Amino acid sequence: MRAIFLGICASFFFASSFVLNRMMSNGGGSWIWSASLRYIFMLPLLLLIVLLRGQFTSLVKEIRKHPWQWFSWSFVGFGLFYAPLCFSSEYSPAWLVAGTWQFTIVAGSLMTPLFHTTGILPNGVPAARTKMPLGALGMSTVILGGIILMEIAQVEHVKVSEILLGGLPVIVAAFAYPLGNRKMMQLCEGRLTAVQRTLGMTICSLPLWIVLSVYQWIAHGLPSENQTVQSCVVAVCSGVIATVLFFSATDMARGNAHQLAAVEATQAGEVVFTLLGEWMLIPGTTISVLGLVGLFIVVVGMVLHSFSSSRGHQQAKENQVFDVAP
User: Fold this and answer.
1) How far apart are CA 249 and CA 14, in angstroms?
2) CA gyration radius, the chain
3) Distance between CA atoms of 3 and 245, rounded to whole angstroms?
4) Which of 1, 163, 204, 206 has the fewest CB within 10 Å, making it most exposed?
5) Are 52 and 226 in contact (CB under 8 A)?
6) 103 with 192: CB under 8 angstroms?
7) Which of 321, 311, 313 is nearest to 122 (CA)?
8) How far is CA 173 from each of CA 41, 87, 166, 237, 307, rounded to the nearest angstrom?
9) What are the TM regions of this chain, as residue ranges (predicted)?
10) Would you tell me how many other CB atoms lie within 10 Å of the CB of residue 116?
C-alpha cells in the first residue's frame, strides 16, 4: 500500500505540469522551451542530491555498462514522453491533456507480455514470460471509464482540431513513459536508487533538449522571464519530486506485475488534481455534474486497483518472479 500512496502523491505533483504548461501556452510561451527547460533545470537539482549522497560514481559506472540502452530508453521514457505532452498543451486545455494521458494506465498493462522473468520457481523450473494482468487491466478499464465520462462532459466545448493535435501526441507519450521506465528498471536491476535513475535518464536525454533549445533560440529567441520561472517550478514539482516519487513506487512493485499496474493506475489522480488546479488558476474552467461523476468513478477505480494488487502480491512473492529485459 505504501507504493500506492507514493503513486498518488506523485500524481499530485505531476498535475502541475498540465496546468502550468497550459498557462505558459496561453501566455504565448513555446512548447519547445516548456519541455527543454524542465529537464535543463532538473539536471543541477538532481545532480546536487546524488553528489551529496555519494552516489554519482556508481551511476556513471552503470551508464558505461550499457550506454546505448541508457540513451535510447531515456529518449523514449523522457523525450517521447514530455515533448508530446508539451506540444499538446498548445492545442488542448489541461484537463483534456491529463485525461488523454490516462491511456498510460491501460498501456502499462498491455505491455506486460513484452517482458519476461528470470526468477526460478521452487521446483527449479525457470519462470515463464510475464502474462498480462487481466484483473489489473479490468480495474484500469473502470478508471478509464470514469475518464471517458469526464471527456464526454467537456467534449462539446472542444474543437476537432484540438482533439487530434492535442490527443494523438499524448497517446504516444502514454506508451513511451511506462515503456522507458520499465526498460530502465530492468536494465538497472535494483542497483540504483530512484533519484540516481532519474538523474541518469535526465543526463542521457540532454542531447534532445539541447538540440531543441538551440533550434528554438535561433528561430524564435530566448524564453520569457515568466516562462522560465514557471518551467523551473515544473522542474522541481513534476520533474524532481513527482518523478522520484513515482520511480520509487514502481521500484517497490518491480517484482509484481499486478502491483506495478496498480502503481501506474494511481496516475489517474492527475486528472482530479489537474481539473481542480485548472479550475482555480485558469479562468473559464468549469466542472459539470457528469464530470464529477467521472471523478468519483476514477477514485473508486483506484481503490479497487489497490485491493486487486494486494491479492496478487502474495502469489508473486511465493513464485519469486522478477522483471528483466526480454
Assistant:
1) 14
2) 19
3) 9
4) 1
5) no
6) no
7) 321
8) 21, 11, 11, 19, 27
9) 31-52, 73-91, 103-122, 134-154, 160-179, 199-222, 228-248, 260-281, 287-307
10) 17
CA separation for the pair 290, 204 (Å, rounded): 43
Size (the chain), residues: 326
Is the entire prediction scored with pTM above 0.70? yes
Q: What is the pLDDT of residues 189-240, one digit of tens each?
A: 889 988 899 899 999 999 999 999 999 999 999 999 999 999 999 999 988 8
The separation between CA 144 and the C-alpha centre of its own chain, rounded to angstroms, equals 16
Burial bucket for residue 232 (CB in 10 Å: 0-12, 13-18, 19+): middle
Locate all alpha helices (DSSP H) within the chain, ordered by sequence. 2-26, 31-52, 56-65, 67-74, 80-88, 94-101, 103-110, 134-155, 160-188, 194-220, 225-234, 243-252, 257-265, 269-281, 289-319
251-300 pLDDT per residue, tens: 887 777 677 777 877 877 888 898 889 888 887 777 778 878 887 888 78
Cβ distance 297 to 149 under 8 Å?
yes
- Report the greatest alpha carbon distance in the chain: 64
C-alpha cell at 229: 520561472
Cell 457528469 appears where? 290
- The three cell numbers of residue 68 are 546505448
Q: Rounded distance, CA 23 to CA 134, Å?
A: 38
* CA nearest to 263, candidates 315, 293, 294, 308: 308
Calpha distance 49→162 (Å, rounded): 39
